[in-house]
Amino acid sequence: MEKFMFYEEGCYYHLYNRGCNKELIFRDEKDYQKLLQIIKKSNHNNYLQLCAFSLMPNHYHFLVKQISEKPVSSWVRYIFNIYVKYFNNKYERKGTLFESKVKAKCINKMKYLGMLTHYIHNNPKNKLNKKYSSLSFLNENKIIYLPFYEEVFNSIENHIILFNEYKGMKNSEIIEKYLFKKTSDCPQDI
Questions:
Q1: What is the CATH number of the domain that holds 70?
Q2: Within 13 Å of residue 181, how many CA atoms lie on the same side as its CB?
Q3: 3-class secondary structure for 46-102?
């Protein structure tokens, strides 16, 4: 039985999902651009802070902070309802695009908040996918919440230095195990 996730104001969440049967959810650059356009028009800044993201051919990752009573799940449902309609229409298909409901992990430790940001930014492995990661948007304040990098890393420059160190770490399996383990609740330790 799947547990119901309670989203709380002031909490950070790692949101992720992948295509049904690991199929592509982005088939060309226009698909990535369409989702970014939907995100920009979603007025998400009114109720959440989008801190980091990466859009991969068959999955996505978002790091968000809920800043109102409106749950982040409403935003995810909104953007992907529009995107799936676009995708199904464009590729003349029907049905679900994703393997399940969005997966959400509450991040309640500052240490893991930084590691998760690095994990998300390290996810893209080729030039195209790096283009559709928040790492490419650190110089603009259009999509992501840039003050997050001041709050967590003291500066964007420091984040880049720490990110480069992260890429060379040997214990990334331990980090991934924590980031994806199931938890029942999220006490606010940050």
A1: 3.30.70.1290
A2: 12
A3: HCEEEEEEEECCCEEEEEEEECCCCCHHHHHHHHHHHHHHHHHHHCCCCCCCECCCC
Using alpha carbons only, give the angle 177, 72, 105 rounded to the nearest 5 degrees: 10
Higher-scoring residue by pLDDT: 190, 123? 123
Write the DSSP symbol of residue 139.
T
2 lies in some domain: no
pLDDT band at 130 (very low <50, low <70, confident <90, very high): confident
| Cβ atoms of 54 and 100 closer than 8 Å | no
Domain count across the chain:
1
Give the tokens for residue 26.
Answer: 């982005």
Higher pLDDT, 179 or 41: 41
pLDDT digits (tens, 9 = 90+) for 138-186: 887 678 999 999 999 999 999 999 888 888 775 556 555 555 554 444 5
pLDDT tens track for 6-22: 788 999 999 999 999 99
Asked whether residue 151 is domain-assigned, the answer is yes
Query: Which structural domain, as residue segments, surrounds residue 83?
Result: 12-180
| 13, two tokens | 């969440």
Task: Say if CB 16 and CB 103 are below 8 A apart.
Answer: yes
